[in-house]
């Protein structure tokens, strides 16, 4: 493909990504993979160049543009090398008309910016994310893994964390194949640390998804005790089993609960748990480094629904705790409504709970919880809090 044809391909892909973000369709990565499956003539260098154009244009535009051309013209305003490719030749984009405007530059949609926690460094939300690993203590130590992965660097403050450069193909590396490491952002590792799970405890990971944090809890428990991974989506929980097997964490039990009737599946756990992790569904504002078009999907109405659902989940999680137990509330969101205010609301609604002061090696205190941000900590963005049920 010529450089101009690559640019035109990026514009077509952006059209599809914009429509998908508007209509709740597939993620950008899925659309890009589909696009190239149908265009076998594109070589690996073509695919890389088109993908880079697409993501550069997405990262640059805080508001969802109307068209791919508008997104790309916005980028071309800052990149004369790209502007020169709008020449109308075969497979190239048509010349930019006088007065034709590009998407404006920005990190965060205007409606959302005032809702972000004040300390958040907004531009850093769109940076490039490294590949973070958690060494699986059920099978290995950081020292043994570091010898096998010489490119990996320790992550300050995370005893089991190792960091590889962006794009490192870790799934082809032996330590990953043998289950000695899991790919897990440093912020997620910090949340597992905040749970302070220990051998012999009863721990419930209530929004377990495919079990990223469940596996970290399993390692902290050294494979001893009761660890339940619950979720409302069967397909997500199903992805945990092969991961648990690879990690040697076969003591994990999975529990499929019924959306809207969660209490039914959780009755037998009432008053039994030492730790309940609520890693709640959220706006994902902290993970834009990995899927920057997510900010084109979020709407005020969706945020309102998420906030209501987070409060509801915390409320049905609370009775699961034994006296003296800890409910750890976490989101990969950086809006105060999903974090600090959510904890304030819980403490106002529920008697007999206190927020524990946290002192973690990365991040900073925020309200009654803790904030991690890409700009301050080099991790994805998270808010979490540890809420203790009185003994
Ligand atoms: C942020 S994701 C969890 C990510 C996961 N903990 C990890 O570390 O990979 C939130 C999860 O909450 C689940 N969820 C949504 N509503 C729920 C509910 N009412 N009860 C339990 N889980 C729910 C979603 O299916 C999703 O898997």
Automatic annotation (TrEMBL):
GO biological process: RNA methylation
Lineage of origin: Bacteria, Pseudomonadati, Pseudomonadota, Alphaproteobacteria, Sphingomonadales
SAM-dependent MTase RsmB/NOP-type domain location: 112-390
Active site: 332 (nucleophile)
InterPro entries: MeTrfase_RsmB-F_NOP2_cat, MeTrfase_RsmB-F_NOP2_dom, RCMT, SAM-dependent_MTases_sf
Keyword flag RNA-binding: yes
Protein name: 16S rRNA (Cytosine967-C5)-methyltransferase
Binding sites annotated in the UniProt record for S-adenosyl-L-methionine: 231, 258, 279
Family: Belongs to the class I-like SAM-binding methyltransferase superfamily. RsmB/NOP family.
Keywords, alphabetical: Methyltransferase, RNA-binding, S-adenosyl-L-methionine, Transferase
Keyword Membrane among record annotations: no
CDD domains to which the protein is assigned, alphabetical: AdoMet_MTases (cd02440)
A single GO molecular function term of this UniProt record: RNA binding
């Amino acid at each position: 493909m010529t450089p101009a044809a690559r640019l035109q391909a990026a514009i077509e892909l952006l059209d599809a990504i914009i429509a998908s973000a508007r209509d709740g369709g597939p993620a950008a990565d899925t659309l890009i993979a589909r696009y190239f499956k149908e265009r076998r003539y594109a070589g690996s260098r073509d695919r890389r160049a088109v993908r880079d154009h697409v993501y550069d244009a997405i990262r640059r535009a805080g508001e969802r543009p109307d068209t791919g051309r508008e997104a790309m013209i916005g980028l071309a305003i800052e990149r004369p090398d790209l502007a020169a490719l709008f020449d109308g030749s075969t497979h190239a984009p048509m010349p930019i008309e006088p007065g034709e405007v590009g998407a404006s530059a920005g990190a965060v949609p205007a409606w959302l910016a005032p809702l972000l926690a004040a300390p958040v460094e907004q531009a850093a939300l769109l940076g490039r994310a490294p590949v973070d690993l958690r060494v699986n203590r059920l099978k290995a130590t950081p020292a043994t893994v570091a010898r096998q992965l010489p490119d990996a660097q320790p992550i300050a403050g995370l005893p089991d964390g190792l960091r590889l450069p962006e794009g490192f193909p870790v799934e082809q590396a032996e330590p990953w194949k043998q289950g000695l490491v899991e790919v897990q952002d440093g912020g997620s590792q910090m949340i597992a640390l905040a749970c302070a799970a220990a051998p012999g405890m009863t721990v419930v990971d209530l929004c377990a998804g495919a079990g990223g944090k469940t596996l970290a809890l399993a390692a902290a428990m050294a494979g001893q005790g009761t660890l339940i991974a619950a979720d409302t989506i069967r397909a997500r929980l199903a992805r945990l089993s092969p991961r648990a097997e690879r990690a040697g964490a076969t003591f994990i039990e999975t529990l499929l609960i019924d959306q809207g009737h969660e209490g039914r599946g959780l009755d037998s756990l009432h008053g039994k748990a030492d730790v309940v992790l609520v890693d709640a569904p959220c706006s994902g504002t902290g993970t834009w480094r990995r899927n920057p078009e997510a900010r084109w999907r979020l709407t005020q109405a969706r945020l309102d629904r998420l906030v209501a659902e987070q409060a509801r989940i915390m409320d049905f999680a609370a009775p699961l705790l034994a006296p003296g137990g800890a409910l750890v509330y976490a989101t990969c969101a950086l809006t105060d409504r999903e974090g600090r205010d959510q904890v304030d609301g819980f403490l106002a609604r529920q008697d007999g709970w206190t927020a524990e002061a946290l002192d973690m090696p990365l991040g900073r205190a925020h309200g009654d919880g803790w904030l991690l941000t890409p700009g301050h900590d080099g991790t994805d963005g998270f808010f979490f809090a540890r809420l203790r049920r009185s003994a």
